[in-house]
Amino acid sequence: MDSSKEKSTSATAAVSNGCCISISSPSIVAASNGITQRATEEIEIPMPWGNVAGKWWGSRHKQPVLALHGWQDNAGTFDRLCPLLPDDIPILAIDLPGHGRSAHYPKGMHYYIFWDGIALIRRIVKYFGWEKVTLLGHSLGGALSFMYAAAFPDEVEGFISIDIAGPPARDHHKQAANLGDSIDRFLRYESLPESKTPCYGYDDAIDVVLAAYDGSVDLQSVEVLMRRGMAPAAERFNKDGFYFSRDLRLKVSLMGMLSLPQVIAHAEKIKCKVLNIRAVPGMNFDNIDYYPSVLEAMKKGSRKLVYHEIAGTHHIHLVNPERISQQVTDFLLDRD
């Protein structure tokens, strides 16, 4: 069925385990070339701490590719890539906890993003009753796809990782030196009253984000991300303008990172096919041996590992999606 012609007749859609997901009415999203169109629907998936929000591209009658965004981004990071992919491959792009429109963790809970995400994917897989999942991830999302494939090697068909090989290997001396400051910063963010929430005019907010990404994204890409990444100031803030909807505590979420030997050990557990797209120059990593070492370790057990180096920034999938869309399409359609 042509997904652009789907009609929604109910506020909810049944899933295979008999539960329901909240769904808004479908909308049509134009691709960056102004030609291709795909139906999308906003959904919410219940979790113990609140809802995880997502954007479902295409048919709800087929198991989708689960798409995972990068740190402090949101599901909108795939808004310019998804319209360039085959219409008959549905994609569910989610906002990770504390990001975009998803619920924040309650006070007292810390974000250990490279570990929490594995359990999150597992919850989503069990909720929908999926089998042999395919994952698509950028940056943090690529690292989470890697970790899930290592944790459940017989239950992943394949994953696509954009500009990351696995969880970045952290210098433990640097991590030890920063630990106390990180905890104090986390507690400050947690206790910040809502009246202190920074609010900006729309143009100023866009400028703040554009500067923060330091050349990795362009103006149009920031505007795409901020459709989910900022919201009008709530009345209780006693301010006008917009605020960034992601949880401030995510700024201090890099504790519990892995050493290179740990990353390598997980890489050797992966059995599924893998597509790794390295943007050039892309993201810089502390350890220059990290990327090739992890790829080499994955080759030991992976059914197939396809690697491409493509000119672009770390957000190549958002800024220049046409540069990688064919490689992603070929991988998703490959039945070998």
Automatic annotation (TrEMBL):
Protein's UniProt keywords contain Signal? no
Looking up InterPro entries in the UniProt record yields:
AB_hydrolase_1 (IPR000073), AB_hydrolase_fold (IPR029058), AB_hydrolase_sf (IPR050266)
Keyword set, alphabetical order:
Hydrolase
Transport recorded as keyword: no
Limits of the AB hydrolase-1 domain: 64-172
Q: Which domain of life is it from?
A: Eukaryota
Q: Tell me which Gene3D superfamilies the record gives.
A: alpha/beta hydrolase
**The family this protein is said to belong to:** Belongs to the AB hydrolase superfamily.
Name of the protein? AB hydrolase-1 domain-containing protein
